[in-house]
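Reopening this one. Same input as before:
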Amino acid sequence: MAFLNNSVALIITANLVIQIAVLFLLAYGYNLKRKLKFRDHGIVMSTALILHLIMAAYVMIPSLVFAVIKEYIIPAPLAVTSIVAIIHAILGSIALAFGIWLVASWRFRRDFQGCFSRKKYMLKALAVWVASLIFGIILYSLFIGSVLKG
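Same output, byte for byte:
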């Protein structure tokens, strides 16, 4: 099995699986908010953010800087892989910044009044993150196809 012997394929697949787990955490957190369990909602969303931050720091950002820019974007900036990677990186950066700001502004307080005024940003952050995930899945498909061929 070429896939199991390829460390790049395993790392990007593990990252994708973890990002899908983050999606489930976000959905669970949203469900907690709908049940008015705001503190639990905040804890689950913080957990999702921390998990996503770890993967961004250890897999996504190094992959972008050391492989994607060098191998795809610089040689062929208008190629499909380059465009998808750029869109994914921009959306992912915006979603990450939104998430950090939202969690940092909450700081595990017991008073939720400040959170309610940021509700519109929470939904936008979720939408941008889901869009980033979709582009990430497309990018994964492009990369895994080239990894398995070569």
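So the earlier flakiness isn't reproducible anymore. For the record, The mean pLDDT is 87.
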